[in-house]
Amino acid sequence: QVQLVESGGGLVQPGGSLRLSCAASGRIFGFNVMGWYRQAPGKERELVARVGGGRSTIYADSVKGRFTISRDNAKNTVYLQMNSLKPEDTAVYYCNVIQGLTNYWGNGTLVTVSS
Q1: Which of these, 18, 45, 54, 87, could form a disulfide with 39 (CB 3.0-4.6 Å)?
Q2: Do residues 4 and 22 make contact, with C-beta atoms less than 8 angstroms apart?
Q3: H-type alpha helices, the chain
Q4: How far apart are CA 112 and CA 77, in angstroms?
Q5: CA–CA distance, 111 with 18 (Å, rounded to integer)
Q6: Cα 3 to Cα 1: distance, rounded to the nearest angstrom
Q7: How far is CA 9 from CA 3, 20, 26, 82, 93, in A?
Q8: Spatial separation of the C-alpha atoms in residues 4 and 2, rounded to whole Å
Q9: Which of 11, 22, 23, 34 is nearest to 89 (CA)?
């Protein structure tokens, strides 16, 4: 089993920045995909960004140029640096790890962008 613990959410003004962290523990293998999804009220969960074991990345079009995903394999941690935040970025952000055939999810951290 893999456990994921997110941190770093909160309230920020438009144009501000936040950094999310997700620490993975348990049966972590060397190669996996780590990423962030988000779910806004009344909307479906969507991919924000993903990083593979080789550090290849994928971003949603809506966050390209503003968000940066990175990982520290030694710490089994994935980060999401979010800059130039917009009100439409308001959502619960979920950490995700794909290992083998299994998807693991964190409990989510709320990001609110509002003045």
Answers
A1: 45
A2: yes
A3: none
A4: 23
A5: 9
A6: 7
A7: 18, 6, 23, 11, 8
A8: 7
A9: 11
Which residue from 78, 84, 79 is spatially nearest to 62, judged by alpha carbons? Answer: 84
Query: At which residue do the structure tokens 């439409």 appear?
Result: 88
pLDDT digits (tens, 9 = 90+) for 73-99: 999 999 999 999 999 999 999 999 998
- For residue 97, what are the CA distances in angstroms to 47, 53, 66, 83? 12, 11, 22, 23
Mind listing the pLDDT tens digit for each residue in 41-68? 999 999 999 998 788 999 999 999 999 9
Q: Residue 30 has what DSSP assignment? A: S
CA dihedral 56, 60, 17, 86 (to 10 degrees): 170
